Amino acid sequence: MIDLAEFGIHEGISEVIVTTLSVNGVPNAAPVGLHKKDGRLFFRLFNSKTLDNVLSRPVACANIVDDPVLFVRSALSDMDSGDFEFVDGFPVLNEALAWIRFRCECKKGEKISVVELSPVSCAVTSLTVRPVNRGFNAVIEALVDATRYVVFGGQKYLDRIGYYDKLVGKCGGGREMEAMRLLYELIGE
Ligand SMILES: Cc1cc2nc3c(=O)[nH]c(=O)nc-3n(C[C@H](O)[C@H](O)[C@H](O)COP(=O)(O)O)c2cc1C
Q1: Is the CB of 41 under 6 A from ligand 1?
Q2: Burial of 69 (0-12, 13-18, 19+ CB in 10 A)
Q3: Is the pTM of the predicted complex or chain greater than 0.90?
Q4: Nearest residue to 115 (alpha-carbon basis) of 97, 124, 103
Q5: 4-124, what's its fold?
Q6: Does the C-beta of 28 come closer than 6 Å to ligand 1?
Q7: Is 44 in the pocket of ligand 1 (CB under 6 A)?
Q8: Which fold has domain 134-186?
Q9: 44, 18 in Cβ contact below 8 A?
Q10: How remote is the CA of residue 163 from the centroid of ligand 1, in Å?
Q11: 8 A C-beta contact, residue 25 and residue 82
């Protein structure tokens, strides 16, 4: 029996990087919210490579990651094959602090699909301690807006990203600064 509390997964939404495998065997990674509510575990997925992969091969791995650059790369670009390692034939991120693999049951919707999750295996590879850092949190908020900006466009997203960028400048470290530099590069701003 896998105890998700040991992975810091509690009620609410935990931001993880989900790895999946395409029908052609190509690994993919993208940030996704892992929902835990009333005993249920699920993803809510917009149309994306992650959804295509889960529909064709109903397995997904939630990688727990604390590197802001990895979040930016996986959200806004294709990862390199060297970013992945395969465990029992399924991709996980080399840099994951821990991962949980799930069997998936998809309820396909027109815009949003709900993917119910059952844990099947897991591993912890690092016990890094990380205090709350507002710069890191600001990168994540900016990145959510960046993923909307690349789909919808609009000044309001750029304004919000600018606000979070200032917070990163105040509270972040080198990795958060690098993440914001890359974010702006990948959205073409
Ligand atoms: C912190 C964060 C959380 C996200 N959560 C979700 C989510 O729960 N569901 C979703 O469909 N997209 C979510 N996204 C957006 C996807 O990561 C983004 O659309 C990504 O480009 C999809 O990549 P893919 O086509 O390789 O699957 C999130 C993005 C960020 C930065």
Answers
A1: no
A2: buried
A3: yes
A4: 103
A5: Pnp Oxidase; Chain A (2.30.110)
A6: yes
A7: yes
A8: Methane Monooxygenase Hydroxylase; Chain G, domain 1 (1.20.58)
A9: no
A10: 21
A11: no
Tokens, residue 20: 């999946």
What is the number of the ligand 1 atom nearest to the C-alpha of 78? 26
Domain ranges, ordered by start, for the chain: 4-124, 134-186
Tokens found for residue 23: 């029908």
Please report where in the chains the tokens 């099947």 appear, as a residue: 120
**pLDDT one-digit tens code per residue, 86-141:** 999 999 999 999 999 999 999 999 999 999 999 999 999 999 899 999 999 999 99
Decide whether any atom of ligand 1 lies within 6 Å of the 50 Cβ: yes
